[in-house]
Amino acid sequence: MTLDQALAFGLIAVTIGLFVWGRLPYDLVALSALLVGIVLRIVPEKHAFEGFSDEIIVIIAAALVVSAGIARSGVIEAIMRPILPKLRTTRVQVPALAGCVLLLSMVTKNVGALAIFMPIALQLARRHKTSPSALLMPMAAASLTGGVVTLVGTSPNIIIAKVRADMFGHPFTMFDFTPVGLSIAAITIAFLAVGWRLLPERRAASSMDAAFTIESYTAEAVLGPQSPAVGRTVADLEAMQEGDVSVAGIVRERFRRYAPTPASRLHAGDVLLLRGEPEGLEQLVAQARLDLASGGDAEAKGVATVVEGVITENSPLIGRTPSQLALQARHGVGLVALSRRGTAILQRLSTVRFRLGDVVVLRSSSPTLPEKLGELHVLPLAERSITLGISHRGWTPLAVLAVAMTLVAFKVVGVAVAFFAAAVILLLLRTMTMHEAYRTVEWHILFLLGALIPLSHAVRDTGGTDLLARGLGHAVEGLGPTTTLAVVMVIAMAVTPFFHNAPTTLVMGPIAGSLAVKLGLNPDPFLMAVALGAGCDFLTPVGHQCNTLVLGPGGYRFSDYARLGLPLSIMVVAAGVPLISFFWPLHGHAP
To answer: Per the record's keyword annotation, is Transport included, yes or no (predicted)?
Structure first.
């Protein structure tokens, strides 16, 4: 072993140790490791920052933006709406929701797909008195196996394609993962349909959302002539959101106010006072094609920002109405909704006198919104994400994604260009603001990868990869190709919970490829085994973002993950090894 190899291995070992220790953020550990690598001269200075310009960074960032655009569009909720009333029991909800997450994970980043369906799952659990803990972990598991079906579904697939290109000159393409991935996905859904019973019933951890959900919000909307609710009853309108939103009042002919009954008939031009939670209000406004009354010009331009805040002491709003304050004209903000503890708002929002402690949803197209909130002494609730009152462009994000996937499938453009173009087009179409797009991107993952890519190159360039491959080759000598493939997959799966899936793939990929070459075997199945093992981390809440995402809402404990994850991991290895061997013959030609 040379000095450079020893330094490279030592640096990787320390980095892994810090990851396992868990006291420092993963991205900070990776950045520190890159700095040490430069100082030790095992990472050449001229190549130190090439990881940040790698197309893998573009693919992941763009895929996250596209996923967010689809989530904000509401199209998934629209597709699911006819199905939701039929999902009344846990044994039906689990396979249905897990299957939907799995399908969406095939074409978007799996963490984005899971985030889209989590509110739907929580809504079902609340409505039918089922436990969220029975739904969320199976959905997370489904998102992981759905992600392994295509190149863009999960980071390990994107990374292993890069490893193949670096080692052998050609990356994996979009659908090279599909034959094995689809089979694993089908097995996963079949298991989850009964395996959810292994999970204990837990209560979700309390959150800032719960703390600030004081009472239902009241919003004011106009029933336009194009709305499907025109001529229908109040009960029909409320049924569009399955009773989660109620009509508290109707104002007709500007001043005539009616107390609605379920049989009250709705007319074009009616002003409706709607009561409910922001998510329900947003969905009803979109489905019934209502116009929120406080839009100003922000909605027309499609660049509005929505913020939820609390009216604090010394606010000039206290004791005055939005009409008296001329909020839109003087301050550039419109009142979208209002919530007040212990009081139901039954009058038009323009005539409500603000009180200390009122929770308001404000909308503005002004770039100086933070300053405006300061002037009004409104404290933003930073832990909440409210999008009520924003136009999300309906089916446009899904159509843009479909075009991008088609171009990739027919090899018109590469994956990076296709998803980069999709993200830019969605931003040009104002499906979200640039600020919201930046918030969508998981920057810690991008910095983690950007810093680790040069380190993985350092291990390879110093000959460390070949050295490890020889050592692993001696360890598996006499085991046979199929057993060796299984060992590689198990190692990747075992290391991922402690090392994170992206670093695992970056380190294990070159080792597995070199091992295959030294054994005279086709490296492709070994690279596939690394991607599948690293992409299917079901055992802990820390190895993958999808597992972390459901930890709080599901009320899970660390040990709960192994209850479902251990048998599922065994099934993935037992099925994955023969499947990979079948679709990617071990004795085939190297790429």
So the answer is: yes
Q: Cβ(505)–Cβ(522) under 8 Å?
A: no
Q: 591 by DSSP, 3-state: which?
A: coil
* 415-474: pLDDT as tens digits: 889 889 999 999 998 887 787 788 778 787 788 878 888 887 888 788 877 787 778 878
Question: With helix as H, strand as E and coil as C, how does 258-289 read?
Answer: ECCCCCCECCCCCEEEEEECHHHHHHHHHHCC
For the record, the structure tokens of 293 come out as 């009354």
Burial 371-407 (b: 16+ CB within 10 A, else e): ebbeebbbeebeebebbbbbbbbeebbbebbeebbeb
* Distance (Å) of CA 81 to CA 86, 373, 389: 10, 36, 20
pTM over 0.90: no
Distance between CA 471 and CA 465 in Å, rounded? 10
> Structural domain boundaries of the chain?
55-206+430-440, 304-387
| Architecture per CATH, 304-387 | 2-Layer Sandwich (3.30)
Q: Residue 385: which pLDDT band, with cuts at 50, 70 and 90?
A: low
pLDDT of residue 296: 47
d(Cα 371, Cα 189) in Å, to the nearest integer? 50
Contact of 30 with 447, CB cutoff 8 Å? yes
Phi, psi values for residue 149, rounded to 5°: -80, -30
Neighbouring C-alpha atoms within 13 Å toward the C-beta of 554: 26
Sequence-distant (≥ 6) Cβ neighbours of residue 184 within 8 angstroms: 145, 148, 532, 536, 572, 575, 576, 579
Rounded Cα distance between 360 and 311, Å, is 8
- Which tokens is 267 given? 């007319």
* Mean pLDDT comparison of 303-317, 341-355, 390-404, 503-517, highest-scoring range: 503-517
